[in-house]
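ARCHIVE CARD
Drawer: 12
Card no.: 0347
Subject: one protein chain, sequence and derived structure
Cross-reference: see card 0346
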Amino acid sequence: ANAALRVRIQQTIQQSKSDLMTIGYSDVAIDAFWETFVDYLAAMETRSHAELVQDFQTEGGEAEYLVWYMRLLTAGHLKKHAQDFQPFIDGLFPGQTVAQFCAAEVRLLVEPMGKECDQPQIAALTEALQVGVKIEYLDGSAGPGEDLQSYACSPTVSASTSEQEPISITLLYRPGHYDILYPRGSEGADQNMSS
């Protein structure tokens, strides 16, 4: 399942550069980030889980290019599907259009690293990549004895069906930080238990 998901994401990323250029992004502005992402995905098969985790724990370098490009994908998907996201943007920033939100996103949240995203950005990225994500919130919003708050975002498989993509990634949100939750017995879970 992971190999098929990786191949599907690789194909999506390959196509994404031309999609972003169609929306109005400049080839010169996005090429290095796109190329880094394509190369990184191609090399993932040969790298260990520990190496991949280390990439994202090291400041600078490829990880920042990958995150920046995913933020571009997010903004691009928001712009392309503005009518779907406008009600969410109205709820967060009354009177602001999706285009204005994305322009602010580029200035405030895309370029600087370490900025959080809200549900519209998460939904846009999961739809752009066609990957289902579940987020468990460990932010104190659940009362005593209550289950954790959770949010599932699972894009539809195709426009002609209401079937949804399965949840492929589960994240734990703590204010200011997301962690990946691995199923028991997976390589990632085994790595995290031993460290």
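Annotation on reverse: The chain has two domains: 1-130, 131-195. Strands lie at 132-137, 149-153, 167-174, 177-181.
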